[in-house]
TrEMBL record, chain A:
Protein localization: Membrane
Membrane topology: Peripheral membrane protein
Annotated gene: sdhA
Designated name of the protein: Succinate dehydrogenase flavoprotein subunit
Species annotation: Kocuria salsicia
Pfam families noted in UniProt: FAD_binding_2, Succ_DH_flav_C
TrEMBL record, chain B:
Family the UniProt entry places it in: Belongs to the succinate dehydrogenase/fumarate reductase iron-sulfur protein family.
Protein name: succinate dehydrogenase
Cofactors: [4Fe-4S] cluster; [2Fe-2S] cluster; [3Fe-4S] cluster
Keyword ATP-binding part of the UniProt annotation: no
Membrane-spanning intervals of the chain: none
Any Pfam family: Fer4_8
All residue ranges annotated as the 4Fe-4S ferredoxin-type domain in the record: 162-184
Origin: domain of life: Bacteria
This protein's record includes keyword Ribonucleoprotein: no
Origin organism lineage: Bacteria, Bacillati, Actinomycetota, Actinomycetes, Micrococcales
Annotated EC: 1.3.5.1
InterPro entries: 2Fe-2S_ferredoxin-like_sf (IPR036010), 4Fe4S_Fe-S-bd (IPR017896), 4Fe4S_Fe_S_CS (IPR017900), Beta-grasp_dom_sf (IPR012675), Helical_ferredxn (IPR009051), SDH/FRD_Iron-Sulfur (IPR050573), Succ_DH/fum_Rdtase_Fe-S (IPR004489), Succ_DH/fum_Rdtase_N (IPR025192)
C-alpha cells in the first residue's frame, strides 16, 4: 500500500472537480483522483448552454435568473445559494471565456445567448436569451477548457484511481476528514491519500435507472461513500427526467433543440405543450414537459408501433440553422435511430438525467453532517452535492453553472482551510473497510451475476420510481431492492486478476447503486406530496404546510424503513414567497 | 426500438412477436476479440463468441453482452456510450472507430467482427492501451490559451469569422483514433501525431491566442508536422468528422509562413 500526502485531495475530474482544482492548485498542494481520464467525464456530454444574465442580446439581470431558479425548483431551492449562483454566473462565464472557451458569438463579437427552458424575463413574462453556448457541445467545451487550464497550471492528476472510502477521524472538535482510500485500476493496489481537505466532485447516479442519459460510470460513488460514513444525503427523491431522450436509448437531445424552435408533437400531430404550459409551451421546465409527455403516452396519444414515445419536430427549421446550432444532436438521431431531422420528426421520451439531491453543503461547499453543522475540511460540489440551488427541479443550463460556481468556491475554501489546518493522523486500519469490500466482491459466494442484478434494479426503478410514483410503486421498488441486496450477497465475479479488473469495479459500483436506489425510494416514500421532479399520483398537489423542507436521510440500522432514518432541514428563503407554479 | 426488442426477448415464448411489419431484425454475429493480459498470458490470442444481437445494437453492446453474460474478464474502457467521451476507440474490422458509435448493422455480418486495441500504444490488457504517451504529446503542444494582455473586465471580443476559423478542431475528444491510425506513429512513437497537431491548430488559429509561434516552433521539430505523409487515415478515423489532414496541412503552411 502506498501513502501520499496532499493539502487538498479532489475526488473526480469533471467540471466541478477541475474547476475546484484550478483554484486549489494555485493555493495549496492539490491532487485530483479520478476513476476516468478527466476528458471522459460526463460534463462533456452536456450540450445546450450555461446561463448567466450577461444581457448581451436582450435586457436581463441576475435577480430574474435567481427568481427563475427558485420557481423552477418549485420553491425548495435555498434562496441564498440561488442568489450566489445567479450573481456569480456572470464571472463564471467570463472566467471560462478568459481561459479560452470558444463561445458562439454575436455579430458584434460578444458571447451569444439563446433561450432555454424556464429562463424568463421579468419573473415569467416570456422566454429570455440567457444561455451562453458553444454550438450544442457546450459541456464538451467546458470540460476541454478546464482540462487545458489544469494542464497550464500543472494540476496533478491520478487518472484511473477509484476512490472507495473517506477516512474520517474523531477530534475534540468533532469528526474530521483525514484523507481518502483509493484503488488504482491499472495495478489493483490500494493507495491512501492523506489530506487536510477533501473535495467530492464525483458526479451523479443516473445508472440507478435503465433509461438514462448518464454514462455507464455514473454510479453515485461519492454519494454512497459519504452515506456509508454516516453523513446525510439531501433531497434524494428528486431525480430529473430530461424530456427529450432518444426513444428507447435515453441518449440526450438538448433542450436547445426546443430553444432553437423545435416543437413536441403527439400522435395527432398536436403541439400538446400548449395545453400544459400555455405561456412558454415547449420551453416549460423539464419536470413539467417530461410529465406532459408521459401523460400523452399514457392517454394513448403516443407515437410508433407501441405508442410509447412522442415526436420532436425540427422539420420547420432551416437545415443550415440546424447544422449551425444543433449539429451533434441531429447526428445522434441519424446514427442511433436512423432518423433525418431535416425531414422527419425525432422519437423522444423522458430519460433519467440528473440528481437534484446529493451530499448537503453550504454555499462554501462545506458538507453538512446534520441539519445544522458542517464538517470543516470536507467539501462537495457539482451533481454529487446538494447546495441546494436546484430544489426539486433543476433548470436547464444551471448544472454547467453550478459546477463552475460551486466548483470554484469549494476549491477556494478547501485550499484556504488547508492553509491553517494540520494533517490528521491516518488510523492504522484506514483501509480495512475497503479491503473487506474488495475481498467480499472477489470471493465466490454463489452464481449471481452483477449485470443481471443491475438490470433488475434498473428495471424496477424505471417501472416504479420514474416520472409517476405512488406509495405502492415506491414500496414495490423497495421490496425489489431488498431482494436484490440478498442476491448481491451471492455474487461471484470472473476476473481474478489485478490489472484493470473492471469486473470487480462493476461489482463495487453495483453496491453503490443499490444503496442509492434505496435512499431515493425511502425519501420518495416519505414525501407525501408532488413537487418538481417528484410526482406522487396519490398526493398530486404541492403541500407547503408539511413538506416545504429538505429531506435528510441517514444510514441507521435501527430504522424500520430499510435501515434508513429520515430527518428534515429548513429551506432558506430570502426574497421569494412560494407561489403556485404556472408557466 | 430497442426497448421493444428487449421486452420481446424476455417475454414468454407464447407472447406473439411485436406486430409483424415492425418486427426488429436480429443479427447472428461472431465477435472475435484480441485478448492479452500480461498478468497471465505470454502472448496475445483471439477469443470468439457467437452472439445474437438486436435492432440498434452497436459493437459496444456486443462487447457488453460478452462481459456481462459470458466472460467478465474481457476488459475495455467505455463511459458515455454515445460518442462524446472518447473512451472506447478500438480497431474494428481493421479500422479505428468508437465501439459505441459503430452500429452492427453497418458492418459485414457474414464474417466475424474483429476487435483489437488501437495500434502504436502499449497494450495494458485486452482492448485497454496505455494512453500516457498520447496525452504526453498533447501536453507538449501547449494546449491552452496564452494571452499576456491585461484581462478585460468583460469578455474578449471575437468576430464570428474568427470564431469559425478554428471551429472544426474544437470538436476533438482525445480518443486517439486518429493518432493510432497513423502509419508514421506506428513506426515512430516519438511523432506528435495527428491529435496533438489538431489541438495545436485549435489554438494557433484562435484570434485570442498569442503563443502560435511557440507552437509552430514545437511542431517544426523533426518529430513534428513534417513527418505527416498525408495518408488521410486520421481523417477517415475521426469519429467527430474533423478534417484532420486539412488541419495538419494548415499548420504546415503556417510553420512555413512563419519561417519566412
Amino acid at each position: 500500500m502506498q501513502v501520499h500526502k496532499y493539502d487538498v485531495v479532489i475526488v473526480g475530474a469533471g467540471g466541478a472537480g477541475m474547476r475546484a482544482a484550478i483554484e486549489s492548485g494555485q493555493r495549496a498542494r492539490t491532487a485530483v483522483l479520478t476513476k476516468l481520464y478527466p476528458t471522459r467525464s460526463h460534463t462533456g456530454a452536456a450540450q445546450g448552454g450555461m446561463c448567466a444574465a450577461l444581457a448581451n442580446v436582450e435586457e436581463d439581470n441576475w435577480e430574474w435568473h435567481t427568481f427563475d431558479t427558485v420557481k423552477g425548483g418549485d420553491y425548495l431551492v435555498d434562496q441564498d445559494a440561488a442568489e450566489v449562483m445567479a450573481k456569480e454566473a456572470i464571472d463564471a462565464v467570463l472566467d471560462l471565456e478568459h481561459m479560452g472557451l470558444p463561445f458562439n458569438r454575436t455579430p458584434e463579437g460578444k458571447i451569444d445567448q439563446r433561450r432555454f427552458g424556464g429562463h424568463t424575463r421579468d419573473h415569467g413574462k416570456s422566454p429570455v436569451r440567457r444561455a451562453c453556448y458553444a454550438a450544442d457541445r457546450t459541456g464538451h467545451m467546458i470540460l476541454q477548457t478546464l482540462y487545458q487550464t489544469c494542464i497550464k497550471h500543472n494540476v496533478e492528476f491520478y487518472n484511473e484511481f477509484y476512490v472507495l472510502d473517506l477516512i474520517m477521524v474523531d477530534t475534540p472538535e468533532g469528526r474530521r476528514p483525514a484523507g481518502v482510500v483509493s484503488y488504482e485500476l491499472a495495478t489493483g493496489e490500494l493507495h491512501v491519500f492523506q489530506a487536510k481537505s477533501v473535495v467530492f466532485a464525483s458526479g451523479g447516479a443516473g445508472k440507478v435507472f435503465k433509461t438514462t442519459s448518464n454514462a455507464h460510470t455514473l454510479t453515485g460513488d461519492g454519494m454512497a461513500i459519504a452515506f456509508r460514513n454516516g453523513l446525510p444525503l439531501e433531497d434524494m427523491e428528486f431525480v430529473q427526467f430530461h424530456p427529450t431522450g432518444l426513444a428507447g436509448l435515453g441518449i440526450l437531445v438538448s433542450e436547445a433543440a426546443r430553444g432553437e424552435g423545435g416543437i413536441l408533437r403527439n400522435a395527432d400531430g398536436e403541439r400538446f405543450m400548449e395545453r400544459y404550459a400555455p405561456t412558454i409551451k415547449d420551453l416549460a421546465p423539464r419536470d413539467i414537459v417530461a410529465r406532459s409527455m408521459a401523460n400523452e403516452v399514457r392517454e394513448g396519444r403516443g407515437c410508433g408501433p407501441n405508442k410509447d414515445y412522442v415526436l420532436l419536430d425540427l422539420t420547420h427549421l432551416e437545415p443550415a440553422h440546424i447544422d449551425a446550432k444543433l449539429p451533434d444532436i441531429t447526428e445522434f438521431a441519424r446514427t442511433y435511430l436512423g432518423v433525418e431531422p431535416y425531414t422527419e420528426p425525432v422519437p423522444v421520451f423522458p430519460t433519467a438525467h440528473y440528481c437534484m439531491g446529493g451530499i448537503p453543503t453550504d454555499i462554501k461547499g462545506e458538507v453538512f453532517q446534520d441539519s445544522e453543522t458542517t464538517v470543516p475540511g470536507l467539501y462537495a460540489a457539482g451533481e454529487v452535492a446538494c447546495v441546494s440551488v436546484h430544489g426539486s427541479n433543476r433548470l436547464g443550463t444551471n448544472s454547467l453553472l453550478d459546477i463552475n460556481v460551486f466548483g470554484k468556491r469549494a476549491g477556494t475554501f478547501a485550499a484556504e482551510y488547508a492553509r491553517d489546518a494540520e494533517f490528521l493522523p491516518v488510523p492504522d486500519d484506514a483501509t480495512k473497510r475497503t479491503e473487506a469490500l474488495l475481498d467480499n466482491a472477489r470471493s465466490p459466494h454463489g452464481n449471481e451475476k452483477v449485470a443481471a442484478i443491475r438490470k433488475d434494479l434498473q428495471d424496477t426503478m424505471d417501472l416504479n420510481m420514474q416520472v409517476f410514483r405512488t406509495a405502492e410503486t415506491i414500496q414495490k421498488a423497495l421490496d425489489d431492492i431488498a431482494a436484490l441486496e440478498e442476491r448481491y450477497a451471492s455474487i461471484s465475479i470472473q476476473d481474478q486478476g489485478k490489472r484493470f479488473n473492471l469486473d470487480l469495479l462493476e461489482a463495487v459500483e453495483l453496491g453503490f447503486l443499490l444503496e442509492l436506489a434505496k435512499v431515493m425510494s425511502v425519501a420518495a416514500l416519505h414525501r407525501d406530496e408532488s413537487r418538481g421532479g417528484h410526482f406522487r399520483e396519490d398526493f398530486p398537489n404541492r403541500d407547503d404546510e408539511n413538506f416545504m423542507v429538505h429531506s435528510m436521510v441517514y444510514e441507521d440500522p435501527s430504522s424500520p424503513t430499510a435501515g434508513i432514518r429520515q430527518e428534515t432541514k429548513p429551506v432558506i428563503m430570502t426574497r421569494y414567497e412560494p407561489m403556485e407554479r404556472k408557466y | 426500438m430497442s426497448t421493444a426488442v428487449t421486452e420481446n426477448q424476455n417475454k414468454d415464448a407464447q407472447q406473439p412477436a411485436a406486430e409483424g411489419e415492425e418486427a426488429i431484425p436480429t443479427y447472428d454475429i461472431v465477435l472475435k476479440v484480441r485478448r492479452y493480459n500480461p498478468e497471465f498470458d505470454s502472448e496475445a490470442h483471439w477469443d470468439e463468441w457467437p452472439l445474437t444481437m438486436y435492432g440498434t445494437d452497436r459493437v459496444l453492446d456486443a462487447l457488453h453482452k460478452v462481459k456481462w453474460e459470458l466472460d467478465g474478464s474481457l476488459s475495455f474502457r467505455r463511459s458515455c456510450a454515445h460518442g462524446v467521451c472518447g473512451s472506447d476507440a478500438m480497431r474494428i474490422n481493421g479500422r479505428n472507430r468508437l465501439a459505441c458509435k459503430t452500429l452492427l448493422k453497418d458492418l459485414d455480418l457474414s464474417k466475424p467482427i474483429t476487435v483489437e486495441p488501437i495500434k502504436g500504444l502499449p497494450c495494458e490488457k485486452d482492448l485497454i492501451v496505455d494512453m500516457e504517451p498520447f496525452f504526453q504529446s498533447y501536453r507538449e503542444i501547449m494546449p491552452f490559451l496564452v494571452n499576456e494582455d491585461h484581462t478585460p473586465t468583460g469578455e474578449r471580443y471575437q468576430s464570428q469569422e474568427d470564431r469559425a476559423r478554428f471551429d472544426d478542431t474544437t470538436k476533438c475528444i482525445l480518443c486517439a483514433a486518429c493518432t493510432s491510425s497513423c502509419p508514421v506513429f506506428w513506426t515512430d512513437g516519438q511523432y506528435f501525431g495527428p491529435a496533438a497537431i489538431v489541438n495545436a491548430h485549435r489554438f494557433i488559429f484562435d484570434s485570442r491566442d498569442q503563443a502560435g509561434d511557440m507552437r509552430l516552433e514545437i511542431l517544426n521539430d523533426k518529430e513534428g508536422v513534417w513527418r505527416c505523409r498525408t495518408t488521410f487515415n486520421c481523417t477517415e478515423a475521426c469519429p467527430r468528422g474533423i478534417q484532420v489532414t486539412k488541419a495538419i496541412a494548415e499548420v504546415k503552411k503556417a510553420v512555413f509562413a512563419s519561417a519566412l
